[in-house]
């Protein structure tokens, strides 16, 4: 099989090849200041070997998504997936040998780093039977393998350094060939840069970067001055996959383009300064007073290759119920009937006196739940108020003790009356084994799920729960998930999805 591609031409017009088979074993480091042509070089390399080897691109700026239009790469929008989904996708990518672009431009910097680190780690940890050869291209590698601690959290830095070190140091035996590109060699961790045996050095101006580049190329200080004078798109290449001696190469043309490609100068608008000033200040105060729009949800990945898309991008996170101890299962699921009374159904078609009494009880409970601050009052105080109002209206309430009242009040706070019969029956069935102290927020989530509405935010859950602490609500959601009552999925973009097992036939709460 022919394993060489042409990366460009030397000063004499001769083709400069790269041996892809050798590159898989020896890795590549690309360096150059902004505007030197690094992205163009990576694009040329990827395009030339697109049909030869699997490619995985870590793209923090979204510059390589156009490969999907020309070569069938699958674009994975990092912000659209949870950490567990990113890891599962990485495993499927190795299994099916799909060429993909992990686009991270919709995430904040630290989230980009964490997403890329988990993705790379999952590629590295794939089972042995999936160790197929693949080029793993990491653009802006100084972000993912910083030489010194920056503004990111220390645990994030350790995670990403471990992932990048595994890729460059131990990835070869697993079929992973790292290609890292950086603007500043001085900012790239030395143990990551040192593992590359092939180099393509572009224009750089800082002495510290030129010196490191010259050391890697085996050049003296006088020869290193050539690096400063390189033109855009010109690189010095060296390595077993390129040339045994430093060779100057002008990178060839490409088919696809990045979103940051410049199109030259454009004429400025022909408008007088007074008109431009008025345009800038028109309705400025009104616009500043408007609420900040919600973050747009990233679109789903495109579908250029149907067979691989179905195997990879159509992934749905499995709904798993965490294991619980026997004591917890006995407490939550097998609670005796005396402790977990049945929630009365509101039979709209029953005209008996008992049904009318139930309607009156529901009316009183709904009135109490709608009052400001009602959920923040002690249960004993609420129960006394309930009993007084029942006596005032002549409604029999002797069959409602404190335990039953707490559950009925939780139902009133959650608004089960808004559901139709089938929805309400499903929610009440699921709620039979829920502990009294978390029943109200659970029902609020379940009601929204049954109606297909947005999930109650933390403020609304706090009101229903009778708390003003956001931390307590987060612990509540964690408790509900641990006991298998809900499944919380939060993606790298910060969007949270709550699924209520047993209500999938209605909708997901988003």
TrEMBL record:
<feature type="compositionally biased region" description="Polar residues">
    <location>
        <begin position="253"/>
        <end position="263"/>
    </location>
</feature>
<feature type="domain" description="AAA+ ATPase">
    <location>
        <begin position="24"/>
        <end position="214"/>
    </location>
</feature>
<feature type="compositionally biased region" description="Low complexity">
    <location>
        <begin position="287"/>
        <end position="297"/>
    </location>
</feature>
<feature type="region of interest" description="Disordered">
    <location>
        <begin position="287"/>
        <end position="307"/>
    </location>
</feature>
<dbReference type="InterPro" id="IPR027417">
    <property type="entry name" value="P-loop_NTPase"/>
</dbReference>
<protein>
    <submittedName>
        <fullName>DUF87 domain-containing protein</fullName>
    </submittedName>
</protein>
<dbReference type="InterPro" id="IPR014588">
    <property type="entry name" value="ATPase_Atu1862_pred"/>
</dbReference>
<feature type="region of interest" description="Disordered">
    <location>
        <begin position="253"/>
        <end position="273"/>
    </location>
</feature>
<dbReference type="InterPro" id="IPR003593">
    <property type="entry name" value="AAA+_ATPase"/>
</dbReference>
<dbReference type="InterPro" id="IPR002789">
    <property type="entry name" value="HerA_central"/>
</dbReference>
<dbReference type="Pfam" id="PF01935">
    <property type="entry name" value="DUF87"/>
</dbReference>
<dbReference type="InterPro" id="IPR008571">
    <property type="entry name" value="HerA-like"/>
</dbReference>
<feature type="region of interest" description="Disordered">
    <location>
        <begin position="333"/>
        <end position="358"/>
    </location>
</feature>
């Amino acid at each position: 099989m022919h394993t060489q591609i042409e990366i460009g031409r030397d000063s004499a017009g001769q083709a400069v090849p790269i041996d892809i088979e050798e590159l898989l074993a020896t890795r590549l480091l690309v360096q150059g200041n902004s505007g030197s042509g690094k992205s163009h070089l990576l694009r040329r390399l990827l395009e030339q070997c697109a049909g030869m080897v699997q490619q995985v691109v870590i793209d923090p700026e979204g510059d390589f998504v156009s490969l999907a239009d020309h070569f069938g790469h699958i674009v994975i929008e990092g912000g659209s997936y949870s950490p567990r989904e990113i890891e599962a996708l990485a495993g499927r990518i190795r299994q099916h040998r799909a060429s993909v672009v992990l686009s991270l431009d919709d995430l904040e910097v630290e989230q980009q780093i964490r997403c890329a680190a988990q993705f790379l780690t999952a590629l590295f940890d794939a089972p042995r039977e999936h160790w197929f050869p693949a080029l793993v291209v990491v653009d802006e590698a100084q972000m993912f393998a910083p030489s010194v601690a920056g503004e990111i959290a220390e645990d994030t830095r350790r995670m990403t350094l471990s992932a990048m070190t595994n890729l460059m140091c131990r990835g070869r035996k697993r079929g992973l060939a790292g290609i890292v590109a950086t603007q500043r060699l001085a900012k790239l961790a030395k143990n990551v840069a040192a593992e590359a045996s092939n180099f393509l050095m572009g224009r750089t101006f800082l002495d510290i970067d030129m010196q490191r580049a010259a050391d890697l190329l085996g050049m003296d200080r006088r020869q290193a001055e050539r690096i400063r004078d390189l033109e855009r798109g010109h690189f010095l290449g060296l390595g077993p996959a390129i040339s045994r001696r430093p060779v100057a190469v002008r990178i060839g043309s490409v088919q696809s383009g990045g979103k940051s490609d410049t199109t030259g100068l454009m004429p400025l608008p022909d408008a007088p300064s007074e008109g431009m000033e008025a345009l800038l200040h028109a309705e400025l105060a009104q616009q500043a007073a408007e609420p900040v729009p919600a973050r747009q949800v990233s679109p789903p990945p495109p579908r250029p290759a149907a067979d691989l898309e179905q195997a990879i991008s159509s992934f749905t996170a499995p709904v798993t119920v965490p294991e619980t101890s026997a004591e917890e299962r006995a407490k939550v699921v097998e609670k005796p009937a005396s402790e977990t009374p049945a929630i009365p159904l509101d039979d709209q078609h029953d005209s008996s006196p008992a049904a009318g009494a139930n309607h009156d009880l529901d009316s009183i409970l709904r009135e109490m739940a709608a009052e400001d601050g009602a959920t923040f009052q002690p249960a004993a105080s609420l129960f006394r108020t309930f009993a007084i109002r029942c006596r005032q209206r002549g409604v029999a309430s002797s069959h409602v003790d404190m335990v039953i009242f707490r559950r009925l009040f939780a139902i009133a706070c959650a608004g089960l009356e808004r559901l139709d019969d089938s929805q309400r029956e499903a929610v009440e069935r699921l709620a039979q084994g829920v502990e009294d102290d978390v029943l109200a927020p659970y029902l609020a989530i379940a009601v929204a799920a049954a109606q297909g509405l947005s999930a109650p935010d933390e403020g609304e859950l706090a009101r229903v729960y009778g708390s003003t602490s956001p931390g307590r609500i987060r612990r509540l959601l964690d408790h509900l998930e641990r006991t298998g009552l809900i499944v919380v999925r939060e993606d790298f973009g910060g969007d949270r999805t709550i699924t209520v097992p047993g209500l999938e036939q209605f909708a997901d709460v988003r």
